[in-house]
Amino acid sequence: AQSVAQPEDQVNVAEGNPLTVKCTYSVSGNPYLFWYVQYPNRGLQFLLKYITGDNLVKGSYGFEAEFNKSQTSFHLKKPSALVSDSALYFCAVRRPESSYKLIFGSGTRLLVRP
Amino acid sequence: DAGVIQSPRHEVTEMGQEVTLRCKPISGHNSLFWYRQTMMRGLELLIYFNNNVPIDDSGMPEDRFSAKMPNASFSTLKIQPSEPRDSAVYFCASSNTEAFFGQGTRLTVV
Questions:
Q1: Where does residue A82 fall: left (phi above 0), alpha (psi -120 to 50 degrees), or beta otherwise?
Q2: Which residue, of A26, A69, A70, A108, has the fewest CB within 10 Å?
Q3: How far apart are CA A73 and CA A90, in angstroms?
Q4: How many CB atoms neighbour CB A37 within 10 A?
């Protein structure tokens, strides 16, 4: 069965510092991996995806993520955090060979303090 | 494209009443998902459709929940009868590769 783990319920970082939000996955085959952000009272917004190719993918709002197949991880990163980045972040995985099912992690709340 | 459109945005109903949530996916997307989000359980996949056909409904909580997708541009999620524990935010999403979410319907059952 495919699953996604986000080990941290909350990440705290000071504005201007780099941030990392962790994600590991368990799925056979070649997964599609995604990051989404959710602001209060809003739906999830797509940030970036890994399908194939370069392990470092760049997305919206200066975010990037690194796919590491040996560690089955897809951590979200940003070199310099902004207070406006404070939100709930979700990692998701899909195994395209057999289904279109998109499975989300439990979410990590990012709090960027001024 | 206006994105995924859900209606209503908010719904307050009494226990025992029927509730119907509506979703218009993005044109051209072949997959549609219904999710439920609560503080306790996070984001749960209820059901997903591919090319209007229900593929996996294993996340539907019980027989009180049903979902339909009569055509490529419309889907409904129905709860009958509703119960207070159904109170949550219900999201619809559509995709080809990455999923795009609607704004959600906040359901309160009193």
A1: beta
A2: A70
A3: 14
A4: 21
Q: How far is residue B29's CA from residue B102's CA, in Å, rounded to a whole number?
A: 14
Provide CB contacts within 8 A for B77, sequence distance 6+. B20, B21, B23, B34, B46, B47, B65, B66, B67, B90, B92
Structure tokens at A6: 């986000």
Q: Contacts from B45-54 at CB under 8 Å and sequence distance 24+?
A: B45/A101, B45/A102, B45/A103, B45/A104, B46/B77, B47/B77, B48/A100, B48/A101, B48/A102, B49/B75, B50/A100
Distance CA B44, CA B77 (A): 14
pLDDT band at B109 (very low <50, low <70, confident <90, very high): very high
pLDDT tens digits, A36-79: 999 988 889 999 999 888 999 999 999 999 999 999 999 999 99
Contact B100 A42 (CB under 8 A): no
DSSP B26: P
Name the DSSP letter for residue A60.
G
Give the best residue of B32, B43, B47, B108 to mutate against chain A (max A CB count within 10 A).
Answer: B43
Are the CB atoms for B102 and B92 separated by under 8 Å? yes
